[in-house]
Design goal:
The chain contains 26 helices and five strands. The protein has helices at 11-17, 19-35, 45-54, 67-79, 83-86, 88-107, 112-123, 126-131, 141-158, 163-177, 181-193, 204-226, 230-241, 246-260, 266-278, 286-301, 313-330, 332-353, 359-370, 379-384, 388-391, 396-408, 412-417, 425-434, 470-476, 510-513, and strands at residues 419-422, 443-444, 462-466, 477-487, 497-506. Strands 2-1-3-5-4 form a five-stranded mixed β-sheet. Helix 24 (425-434) links the parallel strand 1 (419-422) and strand 2. The model is unreliable at 1-13 and 372-380 (pLDDT under 50).
């Protein structure tokens, strides 16, 4: 008996069996790329900080929301303290971003070629390669923004209004990761309001999504209110400390996008913006194009940092390859030139985005691009010559070891009451993380979120200060003695030689004078609480 032939697969079935599998493979490649490289060098300054923050879980922190410290805590509980463990979830976020970009291209009508090129473009985006190597709030932004864009696009395409509730859930999680997604959400809503799609907003599902987003976010807002809005204070100090002027800030914002997104990808995402704003097939999704214009306006107005725009590019890259796909399919030269350009420039920039080269080779390679070759006498001095984003992965344990040497010179009585005061959250996090190996107590710091964890009941009679302004220290303590120095690799306002001071005899108890230690960007140079006693 001859069996009847199987019915042909539907387009949906074919997509799930082939295109999605290819996107998952590309996502897996991105995941393995991070797994194979993210154990190099050392912990990034922010990773040390977020691991410390994970030990002080709360609904908010000086810089914003609590999700990243919670993830740091979860990583350590599940997998331990290794670099692989701490960077496991950022790598997953990277893989998810690749898959979502391909899905956006698919929903815009792109075929397999468009989906693959969009995914490859995201894999080779230097900004994503770096931020999804390390555990920071920025690691999860591309995934969360892309998911918001995908859901918005899908609603505009299908008018399945019930998905607004899912979009609200994602937006709430995004806000609990980093406040900057607020600008993207508002830009999307404004973009929809200025297009005929505005009718899709006035319904109970959009209201439900808004309530979900606000409900998830309320604990973080309450924390900010109860602590007198440290996030706004942080942003205000950032603007004063890094103020460049509107013109210089605008030039910096624009030029940095070229490097962060891969120079060869700029024409692609530029075509994506054109697709949303000016083509007939992109008319339904015009709100996404307007959202980019609006958010650029926001960041120019508020002089946002150059990497604030980085999470928005998956939706533009996907639209760009969909716009180019007919030409890429028609002309083999276009197809291969586009792919080769993306891959070639991506590979050239790869060592500046991923920690893959030995330190000496990295310094020489980076010198080719943007600095003169320099000579150094030790590995720690070499670390100080590495590109700034890798520099913040280097030298932490060496600094802690130097602090431990100074600590061991103290008498047992002094050690029992000694506080280790760090003036940069990276050094404080390093003491907290590496300190147990060297039998050091936990650090205290007035820098960013560390300030809110207080002085840990130390009296302040004996303090080892890692850096610090001498005038401030002398106004605060009866005696200040330089007991050690070490090479500083952070280049965040300290000298190349990082001093370690032994301070004795605090003039006012540490619990009373603690507010004078608070700062976000510029270290206090005087202590107003004790200056009159000097």
């Amino acid at each position: 008996m001859v069996s009847a032939p199987s019915p042909p697969k539907s387009d949906k079935q074919q997509w799930f069996s082939s295109d999605l599998a290819i996107l998952c493979c590309l996502g897996l490649f991105k995941l393995l790329l991070h797994f194979g490289t993210n154990h190099q060098y050392g912990y990034f300054a922010d990773e040390l900080y977020y691991m410390a923050a994970g030990e002080h879980l709360d609904w908010g922190f000086a810089e914003g929301s609590p999700l990243t410290p919670a993830i740091a805590n979860l990583s350590r509980w599940m997998l331990g303290d290794s670099l692989f463990a701490i960077r496991f979830f950022p790598a997953l976020s990277g893989a998810g971003t690749v898959i979502l970009t391909g899905l956006i291209a698919r929903e815009l009508g792109g075929g397999r070629l468009a989906q693959v090129i969009a995914a490859v473009a995201v894999i080779l985006t230097p900004g994503y390669l770096f931020v999804q190597t390390i555990l920071t709030m920025n690691a999860f932004e591309p995934l969360l923004w892309a998911l918001c864009a995908y859901l918005t696009l899908y609603i505009l395409k299908t008018e399945r209004l019930g998905l607004w509730s899912i979009a609200g859930l994602v937006a709430g999680i995004g806000l609990m990761n980093k406040f900057s997604i607020f600008f993207f959400i508002i830009s999307l809503v404004i973009g929809i309001l200025i297009t005929p799609a505005r009718r899709l907003l006035f319904n109970r599902w959009f209201l439900l999504g808004s309530i979900l987003a606000i409900g998830i976010f309320i604990p973080a807002i309450v924390w900010q209110i109860n602590h007198h809005w440290p996030f706004l204070e942080h942003q205000r100090e950032a603007s004063l400390y890094e103020k460049k002027g509107l013109f210089q800030s605008a030039i910096d914002l624009v030029l940095q996008q070229i490097i962060l997104t891969n120079p060869a990808a700029v024409p692609v995402w530029g075509c994506g913006l054109y697709y949303y704003l000016f083509t007939r097939s992109g008319k339904r999704y015009r709100a996404l194009g307007w959202s980019y214009i609006i958010i650029v306006g926001w960041f120019l107005l508020f002089e946002g940092r150059f990497y604030y725009l980085l999470p928005i590019y998956p939706m533009l890259l996907a639209a760009g390859v969909v716009f180019l796909e007919p030409k890429l399919q028609r002309y083999l030269t276009w197809k291969y030139t586009t792919l080769l350009a993306l891959i070639a420039t991506g590979l050239v920039l790869l060592p500046l985005a991923l920690p893959i080269l030995p330190l000496e080779t990295l310094i020489g390679y980076s010198n080719i691009f943007y600095r003169r070759p320099t000579l150094y006498k030790s590995m720690q001095e070499a670390a100080a010559e590495a590109p700034w984003h890798f520099r913040l992965m280097l030298g932490w344990e060496e600094t802690v070891a130097r602090v431990a040497q100074a600590y061991r010179q103290l008498s047992p009585q002094e050690q029992s009451e000694c506080a280790i005061l760090a003036w940069f959250y990276g050094h404080a996090g390093a003491v907290d993380f590496f300190g147990p190996t060297y039998h050091l107590p936990k650090a205290i710091s007035g820098h960013t979120g560390y300030y809110f964890w207080g002085p840990r009941d130390y009296s302040g009679d004996t303090v080892l200060s890692i850096a610090g302004e001498l005038t401030f220290l002398r106004q605060t303590f009866d005696s200040v003695e330089l007991v050690a120095t070490t090479t500083d690799t952070t280049s965040l306002g300290f000298n190349s030689e990082l001093p370690i001071y032994l301070c004795r005899g605090i003039k006012r108890p540490l619990s009373e004078s603690w507010p004078a230690f608070k700062y976000y960007f510029e270290q206090p140079t005087t202590n107003p609480l004790t200056a009159e006693l000097s």
